[in-house]
Amino acid sequence: MNCATKWSLGIAAIACVCWRFPLFHLVPLKTATAEKAAAAFDAAKAVETYWTNQLPAAIGQAVNADQLLTAIKADPTSAKKKFSRSLGMGESYLYFVAGSGRVVAVLDDEVSLAVTDGGTNPEISLQTGLIFGNALRDGLGGFNASDYPNSQDFNDLAAALNHLVETRVLPKLRGQAKVGANISFAGCAEVDDESTDLKPLKVIPLQTGAQ
Amino acid sequence: MNRLHCLAATLAAIWVSQILPMHAAESATAKAKIAVVVSTLNNPWFVVLGETAKARAVELGYDATIFDSQNDTAKEAAHFENLIAGGYKAVLFNPTDANGSIANVEKAKAAGVPVFCIDREINSTNAATAQMLSDSYSGCVKLGQLFVKTVGKEGEYAELLGIVGDNNTWNRSKGFHSVVDRFPGLKMAAQQSGEFDRAKGLEVMESILQAHPAIKGVFCGNDAMAMGAYQALVTAGKDKQVKVFGFDGADDVVKLIAEGKIVATGMQFPKKMAQQSAEFADQYLKGKRDFAQKIPVPVEIVTQENVGKYGEYGRKP
């Protein structure tokens, strides 16, 4: 076999290998962009799935509002130990609470409820303004920071939950909230530390209903 | 030859009976080494982080050495090569890059060296043994809420960004904007990088004030820039008009908050994170293995109302 033939066969063999096992792929930009978007974390979808499949059962596990407020009044430290959860290494803690009460005041950003029978003082303040922060994500206990390689995805969950509340829960609550009306609720409250005033307990509502 | 044989045998016997046990005893009493790898020592906040981690490791009975990555992932990689070869038993690690630093942590893990990330994360949940992460984004959400409450829902403001290539710069900016952008009456008149540097923050604030004299507030991505911005405002006679917000919890800003000159900062807890990382390393070396992967360390907002609770880089005991 002469030199030229050997070279030709060699090049043909390499060409076959490269065709069978390409060193790189050329992908249209649109396709590549679409694939990247599809692989990206979808916080809205994750939250929607949680809202539909897990939230109803989770609400069943929330502490009763009457029980919690009685415990806080008796001994806030003990109430914190028994009923709260906290995330990581901070001073703040959260309550996931459910109950019902009578509307005693309706303000721009809150609906105040008296939970105690015959009470007139606001004991629960349902927040009805723009919702920020991680109270819902962390108070529910359904999302674990360790499951998200990129913390921004974990933060996006909080934003998505807040958005769901603003768009689905608050419009309904504003319609129900008339002074004197009885309202059931479930929601989360974040407490910064022992110096936080818990009268009333500020709760971001996840679910409300007229009674 | 017989005498030589006898001499050799005698020396060997001495070596085996006397010298070898001495070396073994020395090894047994030699302290285990822990490496503290910090992204940069050119920033006092990271100096506190590194020094606190080292001090706690020493208290726990280890030899500890600080390695400065100088914000360079390649230097960081070289440190990891050296500390793995040098027999370090654990790494307390402040990454330079959330993605770029993963390979370094994986190398350490493959070599049986646990890595505990402090303050900054790597974008992986199965490389580091545990990660204690300061939640800059959420801290700046809280600052954003306070900003709107203090400055109002209408008017112009400025933002001083940190180093553009730093993840923390954008975490903080995004957290802040997730709030203020919901108020259409609030207009961002200027957004410029002060590079996390006091002198640069001063220079940038001066030029912003010339172009936008009516701003009501300035959000600074760290306290060094907040100090620079405040200095510029004092010189321009606008320190009462423009509300200043920082981030970190540096002592000089906390003092100005107490005096009512700066509105607020986000207190991170470098000492708490650093001490915990050393304690985790100690627990690991004593056999513990079940660590939570990502441990958020919430940022607390320091204002004039609650400043009495806070000391340098943390809460007062």
Structural features:
heterodimer, A: 211 residues, alpha/beta, OB fold (Dihydrolipoamide Acetyltransferase, E2P), five-stranded mixed beta barrel, 45% helix, B: 317 residues, six-stranded parallel sheet, four-stranded parallel sheet, 10 helices, 47% helix, elongated
Short description, anyone?
The complex is a heterodimer of chains A (211) and B (317). Chain A is α/β, with parallel strands linked by helices.
How would you describe this protein?
The complex is a heterodimer of chains A (211) and B (317). Chain A is of the alpha/beta class and 211 residues long. Chain A has a single domain, classed as Envelope glycoprotein gp160, DUF2291, alpha/beta domain (OB fold (Dihydrolipoamide Acetyltransferase, E2P), Beta Barrel). Helix content of chain A is 45%, strand content 21%. Chain A has eight helices and six strands. A five-stranded mixed beta barrel of chain A has the order 2-3-4-6-5. Chain B has 317 residues and is α/β, with parallel strands linked by helices. Chain B has helices at residues 2-29, 44-59, 73-85, 102-110, 136-151, 167-180, 198-211, 223-236, 251-258, 270-285; strands at residues 33-38, 63-68, 90-93, 115-119, 130-134, 155-161, 186-193, 217-220, 243-245, 265-267, 294-297, 300-302, 310-311, 314-315. A six-stranded parallel sheet of chain B has the order 2-1-3-4-5-11, with helices on both faces. A four-stranded parallel sheet of chain B has the order 7-6-8-9, with helices on both faces. In chain B, strand 1 (33-38), helix 2 and strand 2 (63-68) form a beta-alpha-beta unit. In chain B, helix 2 runs parallel beside helix 10 (270-285), helix 5 (136-151) packs parallel to helix 6 (167-180) and helix 7 packs across helix 8 (223-236). The model of chain B has no long low-confidence stretch (mean pLDDT 93). Chain A binds chain B through residues 87-92, 130, 132-134, 145-152, 154-155, 158-159, 192, 195, and chain B through 98, 121, 123-125, 132-133, 135, 137-138, 141-142, 144-145, 171, 174-175, 178-179, 182, 269, 272-273, 276, 292-298, 300, 306, 309, 315.
